[in-house]
Amino acid sequence: QVQLVESGGGLVQPGGSLKLSCAASGFTFSSYAMNWYRQAPGKEREWVARITSTTIMSNYADSVKGRFAISRDDAKNTVYLQMNSLKPEDTAVYYCNVRLPRDYWGQGTQVTVSS
Q1: pLDDT for 56
Q2: Residues 6 or more apart from 109 whose CB is under 8 A from it?
Q3: What's the CA gap between 67 and 81, in Å, rounded?
Q4: Cα angle vertex 82, ends 32, 47, to 5°?
Q5: Confidence class of residue 13 from pLDDT cuts 50, 70 and 90?
Q6: Which residues of 95-104 are buried (b: 16+ CB within 10 A; e: fewer)?
Q7: Fewest Cβ atoms closer than 10 Å to its Cβ: which of 54, 77, 85, 104?
Q8: Alpha helices by DSSP H, 1-115
Q9: Rounded mean pLDDT of the chain?
Q10: Is the pLDDT of residue 77 over 90?
């Protein structure tokens, strides 16, 4: 069965950095694009970043462009999200996602940006 397991969240001060990981299993990881989403308290889940398979192209939401970087290691079946220059408004639960075409989600990892 498909499993996505996120890790790497935590508490960080404004301006700091975190790197999230998502370990995937149960499907041919290298064949699929992967996404990161986030959901802040009281808000809808929003798309953050996407990385394709094969051609390895990435796209970002305007709110994180220039600060976040998505990457993947197909040998480890893992997708990453490097988050730099973090702001309090980046506080959210971060989820990785794959569309097979059905959507699968991990359990999420909490990121809190606060002084």
Answers
A1: 82
A2: 6, 7, 8, 9, 20, 93, 94
A3: 10
A4: 55
A5: very high
A6: bbbbeeeeeb
A7: 54
A8: none
A9: 96
A10: yes
Enter the tokens of residue 95. 């989820």
The pair of structure tokens assigned to 3 is 């499993």
Tokens 């390895």 correspond to what residue? 56
Structure token pair of residue 39? 């959901």
- 2 touches 27 (CB < 8 A): yes
Parallel, antiparallel, or unpaired for β 78-83 and 68-73? antiparallel
Round to whole Å and give the CA distance between 10 and 39: 15
Residue type, 46: E
